[in-house]
Amino acid sequence: MTPEVRQLTAGLRGLREAAGLSLSELAARTPYSKSSWARYLNGEKPVPYDAVVALCRVVGERPERLLALWELADAEWSGRGSSAAEAEGEAEAEAGGRHGGRVRRVAFAAGAAIAAAVCAAVLLLPDESADSAVPPPTYSPGCTGPDCDGQNPVDMGCGGDNMVTTAAQRTFADGQRVELRHGTTCHAVWARATRLRIGDRVELSRSGAGPKEVRANVRDDTTGYLATAMTPADDPAGTRVCLIPAKGDRVCIEA
């Protein structure tokens, strides 16, 4: 895998993981299958331009930075670099030996200019990992406060970067992990779980609101994240998340 492809796939995987999306959930919300997403994210298959846009739209992320990385990766996938070299050789032969050196220099300079322009575009895009005086972008989720009650946090775009905090978390003896998530932009809480076993349930409860529950029913539910529906909350304090394993006793955490 080339460095360009590695950078792109790492960026795509980071967005999916930050949003807590399983491959099945990602496939359900985009035109691409679960197996296709697996190959795209592992760098086993070229990523379509529209797939990058679709993932960014699902998680509420601006696509510009990843699309600039996609341009570099696509140049490797499509072999445009090799095609340019072949075209240079043909032009050099037609021009003859006397002009060959000049054609080669012009073609090299043109190629270098294009590469420099693309790299500059990537460098000029905001780097989320670098300190900057520019404030992070803000997003408009699909709901806030009472409107989020019973809604899926992923579908509503409440779990994107800079929009959520983990109020409490715990990994249990059998490996199941649960988290209490607080959507600071959506003003809501929900539970997120991973490494569940088939039959395990996770329940979120809060005074004055009905409980929210999610259950691992099939194998795919045990390999990715599962999230309960949301409950409105300006502050996660007083919210409880319980793991109810298929075999064993209920165990809970609380903010």
TrEMBL record:
Residues 12-66 form the HTH cro/C1-type domain. Pfam families: DUF2690, HTH_31. Keywords: Membrane, Transmembrane, Transmembrane helix. The chain crosses the membrane at residues 106-125. PROSITE patterns: HTH_CROC1 (PS50943). This is Helix-turn-helix domain-containing protein. It comes from Streptomyces xiangluensis. The lineage of its organism: Bacteria, Bacillati, Actinomycetota, Actinomycetes, Kitasatosporales.
